[in-house]
Amino acid sequence: MRSAGNRRLSPFFAKNGGCPLFRRRRGVQSTLLHARLVAAADAGCDLAIVTTEPASTSQANVQRAGFALLYVRAILVRPASAA
Question: Where are the domains of the chain?
């Protein structure tokens, strides 16, 4: 457990990746997210941050869970041949 100012953060709760064995549209991601939020709260964390691809199903799932969009980040790449 580490702290940021007066907030308690735990790296354990990072990553809500899916498993290819589970089929989509079964609520697996939402269930995992809820379980991790409960465990984080029980561990004393009072701040949760999620990153997703913009306009993705994951973004819709976490917004349905009560998260609000803070900002959208663009990741730009330059091909080596453009030098």
Answer: 2-82
